[in-house]
């Protein structure tokens, strides 16, 4: 369930912005153009677009998040300490404007781990859990941290809490299946993976895991898996630059 920032940074462009007046409309246009520049590996042009978006609407959290994404990606590629600090600064400005920004909380926690400040990563996410006790997202992120620190029991418990809060969260069930599988609990792993597929059949890797586990779990057999046609993949929201979609998206 470990997320790879470098590999996923431009794999998808997520729509999470609201249009709320002329200045916001202009900011979102710059924001969308910046995302396109980032996807084309035009880093400096992307940063310029995001700076223009900030000037148009200084309260738009996504422009700060997107700038942080650019600096964070560049820091990982070059190891430049100043870029890490700029990414951290941008993420913090985003969270000042929207404390519940899922991608930004997740990305800042990842950055802390990247620079060897694991204790700050745990503190950030634990405080996020306290602020949003009815949301599964901070618990999924806390589980990721526990997983990366080889504390699978705690990761499993966090994910059990997450699916208890939201029984339709595909990401939580997929992560829970992965943790249970690595703990040697194949039967429970299979159940979690099957639940994830029922929610979103467009997961080839999970389909393969289910097929494999059905051979090892007594009484399940190798039943075929038929993906739903035209299924939409709702994942890919981890640490991505954000952009609007035809002015009709909601948060």
Mind explaining what this structure looks like?
The protein has 251 residues and is mainly alpha-helical. It has a domain of 168 residues: Alpha Horseshoe (Serine Threonine Protein Phosphatase 5, Tetratricopeptide repeat), CATH 1.25.40. Helix content is 65%, strand content 2%. It has a two-stranded parallel sheet. Helix 5 runs antiparallel to helix 6. The N terminus and C terminus are likely disordered.
SSE topology sketch:
Layout: H1 5-8, E1 14-15, H2 22-39, H3 43-56, H4 61-78, H5 81-97, H6 102-114, H7 118-131, H8 137-148, H9 152-165, H10 170-182, H11 186-199, H12 204-216, E2 242-243
Parallel strand pairs: 1-2
Brief descriptors of the model:
251 residues; mainly alpha; Serine Threonine Protein Phosphatase 5, Tetratricopeptide repeat; 65% helix; elongated; disordered C terminus
CATH superfamily of the domain at 5-164 and 236-243: Tetratricopeptide repeat domain
Shape: elongated
Radius of gyration: 19 Å
Which segments are poorly predicted (pLDDT under 50) over 5 or more consecutive residues?
1-23, 222-240, 242-251
Q: Kindly state the number of beta strands.
A: 2
Summed up, the helix count is 12
